[in-house]
Write a structure and sequence with these properties.
The protein is mainly α. The chain folds into two domains: about 80 residues; about 30 residues. It is about 65% helix and about 0% strand. The longest helix has about 40 residues. The radius of gyration is 34 Å and the shape is elongated. The termini are far apart. Pfam families: 2TM. InterPro entries: 2TM_dom (IPR025698). This is 2TM domain-containing protein. Keywords: Membrane, Transmembrane, Transmembrane helix.
Amino acid sequence: MFSKKQETRKIDREQRELIEYAQYRVKQKKNLFRHFVVFLAGAVLLIILNKFLDFGSDFRPGQVDWFVWAILIWFFLFLIHFLNVFLLGSFMNKKWEHDQIDKLVNKQKAKIAKLQEQVDREHPLPKQNTFISRPDKPLNS
């Protein structure tokens, strides 16, 4: 209990990968939440700039206030971020990558085995003789 020697735990490769992936996903979700908060604050700021401070009130592309376009574009970027985190992040994750790598490796192994069979069939190795000469004994004895 009071020993200075601490027991070290060894984490195997799979556990480490799971921990790293979980940390990565938490970081992604945290950044998405930050993006959402900044988006809301920015949208409110743009509305205040236009409506209350009269900034750019004469600029109306398409007969719509400029801040509406800015908020729509920002919302579109946030939507892309959201889809990347929740849809693509869960669809094309580490497990998916490992599965794809395993599929490709298995295909390559199958091709190599097929080529090896073809080589063995077309160029068989010579059969070995049952007679083995021993260097320590002469052949004629």
